[in-house]
Design goal:
Helix content: 10-25%
Number of strands: 5
InterPro entries: Beta-grasp_dom_sf (IPR012675), Mopterin_synth/thiamin_S_b (IPR016155), Sulfur_Carrier/Prot_Modifier (IPR052045), ThiS/MoaD-like (IPR003749)
Mean pLDDT: 95
Number of helices: 2
Largest sheet: 5 strands, mixed
Strand order of the largest sheet: 2-1-5-3-4
Shape: globular
Protein name: Molybdopterin converting factor small subunit
């Protein structure tokens, strides 16, 4: 299943500057594995050393925050858009 993945500016160094890339997988976990295979190193910026989504990274499948769905097991229907959004903090 082919999906599109929106890449935040801070991670575009891994995608050669592309703001959006395609990947395949039936779940978010598979999509992120494919994304990391195609763009080595990007997975470590999204997932922590235990394999979970980093605390300050938000990932949406369509309009759904995966933390309120099935996390990495969230289904990724063909054609859906996945958004990776780093949290912003400041004062």
């Amino acid at each position: 299943m082919s999906v599109s993945v929106r890449i935040p500016t801070i991670l575009r160094t891994y995608t050669g500057g592309s703001a959006e890339v395609t990947a395949e997988g039936e779940t978010l976990r598979e999509v992120l594995q494919k994304l990391d295979a195609d763009h080595p190193g990007i997975g470590a910026r999204i997932l922590d050393e235990t394999g979970k989504i980093r605390r300050f990274v938000n990932v949406y499948v369509g309009d759904e925050d995966v933390r309120f769905a099935d996390n990495l097991d969230t289904a990724t229907p063909s054609g859906v858009q996945i958004s990776i959004i780093p949290a912003v903090a400041g004062g």
